[in-house]
Amino acid sequence: MSPLLNKYNLGIEALLCAILTLSLIGIPASTFTTPAFANTPKPPANTVRRSDPGGTLPLSFELNQGQTNERVKFLARSEGYVLFLTATEAVMALDNPVAHQKGKENRELRSRAEDSLPRTPRRIVRMKLEGANPEPQIEGLEQLPGTSNYFTGSDPADWHTDIPSFTRLAYAQVYPGIDMVYYGNRRRLENDFVVAPGARPDVIQMTFSGIKDFEIDRMGDLVLRTEQGNIRQSKPVAYQEANGVREDVSVSYVVNGMDHVGFQVGAYDPARPLIIDPVLTYSTYLGGSGFDQGYAIAIDSLGNAYVTGATAAIDFPTTPGAFQTNYGGGDAFVTKITRSGSALVYSTYLNGASGNGIAVDSDGNAYITGEAGTT
Predict the structure, then answer these.
(1) Which residues make beta-bridge pairs with 213?
(2) Do residues 60 and 167 touch, judged by C-beta distance below 8 A?
(3) What CA–CA distance (Å, rounded) separates 155 from 322?
(4) Under the phi-then-psi rule, with left for phi > 0, alpha for psi from -120 to 50, and beta for the rest, what region is 84?
(5) Alpha-helix residue ranges (DSSP H) falling in the chain
(6) Is 141 left (phi over 0), alpha (psi -120 to 50) or beta?
(7) What is the DSSP-derived secondary structure letter of residue 118?
(8) b/e map of 360-371 (b: 16 or more CB within 10 Å)?
(9) CA distances from 340 to 157, 189, 238, 304 (A)
(10) What fold does the segment set 292-372 form as a domain?
(11) Contact 228/97 with Cβ under 8 angstroms?
């Protein structure tokens, strides 16, 4: 296992849980093993190990000990989906969009659903490694200090307790000479392919099901279109290390045939390990400790996101020098987020208002429409 397998995470969720997957996972089972992935370096200083003020807990990976389908090895919960990891697939159960509708409409729909309507099933998106090892060695790395407990029903025999979670997962030999590591970067799922010297990165092939279609956009991102929104894998990065110095390697997604996606890698030193790092983004968290709702979003030509909505949080994140940095009592917000989703460019309250629509021009100026009170 390469000592370059490295990164972070923190998160524990102990939930009273009905069975989430039912018959959603239909993939070949494999035997769970726990190889010794040793001597992995500590995460770099810029990784996040705890939630930021106004943020949320990062991803963690929970060992399956009977709380879900037996073919699942680990599961994780993020903003917008639940993730089930098997030997060869990452299966995303996307949130029901009713849970994210706004205002009075949302409250009425939730109330009716609780009273009489059957629960709408989650939409399932599968990402599979084609031609991969059906029984890779899988191990959780960096076990977290807490545990999760599931109390389903009144019979203690059906309960599942003291379930460990981990910050990273290591899959050994998914392809010959290629390992894979899952980890979280805030609420975003990342997986590094670690290509050993002499191994071929072009054998990595991904297929997707449960989507309408996909494309590689002009930014180099892989965009999966679903009935409930887009899933985006950011343009991958690749690098090698020599004497502690990182050397970037050119890499991009490439479509092979009708439905296979791989990586096209530029010149690199085949005598050294190569790391390929795509980032999966379905949604990110923005808000404070109160009631927040995002009503509209726009994207500029550089991939930055502009979001507006309403907040009742006194600690909604704002940026220094913004138009209004203090809560006024039921405000709109306008926030610009970097393309990676990892930082705010600016964020402000708008007193006594609700931002219902937003557009952005070619110069990056944002235009907001909505409702405003008499104040």
Answers:
(1) 225
(2) yes
(3) 55
(4) beta
(5) 103-115
(6) beta
(7) P
(8) beeeeebebebe
(9) 45, 12, 16, 8
(10) Thrombin, subunit H (2.40.10)
(11) yes
The first and second tokens of residue 76, run together, are 């994780």
Type of residue numbered 278: P
pTM confidence score: 0.59
DSSP E strands in 176-269: the ranges are 178-185, 188-195, 206-209, 213-216, 222-226, 229-242, 245-249, 251-256, 260-265
Would you say 209 and 220 are in contact if contact means Cβ atoms under 8 Å apart?
A: no
Under a CB-based contact definition with an 8 Å cutoff, are residues 190 and 278 in contact? Answer: yes
Give residue-wise pLDDT tens across range 146-190.
Answer: 888 888 888 888 888 899 999 889 999 999 999 999 988 755 778
Pair of tokens at residue 69 = 């389908």
Answer yes or no: are the C-beta atoms of 202 and 214 closer than 8 Å: no
Helix, strand or coil, per DSSP, at residue 103: helix
DSSP state of 115: H
Distance, CA of 106 to CA of 92 (rounded, Å): 24
Amino acid at 268: Y
Question: What spatial distance separates the first Cα and last Cα of the chain, rounded to whole Å?
Answer: 62
Task: Kindly report the length of the chain.
Answer: 375
Place of tokens 């639940």: 82
pLDDT in tens, 98-143: 444 444 444 454 455 445 445 556 788 888 999 999 999 999 998 9
The contacts of residue 115 (CB under 8 Å, 6+ apart) are: none
CA 166 to chain centre: 16
For the chain, the domains span: 61-281, 292-372
What contacts 311, CB < 8 A, 6 or more positions away? 287, 288, 290, 291, 292, 293, 327, 331, 332, 333, 349
Which residue type does 75 have? L
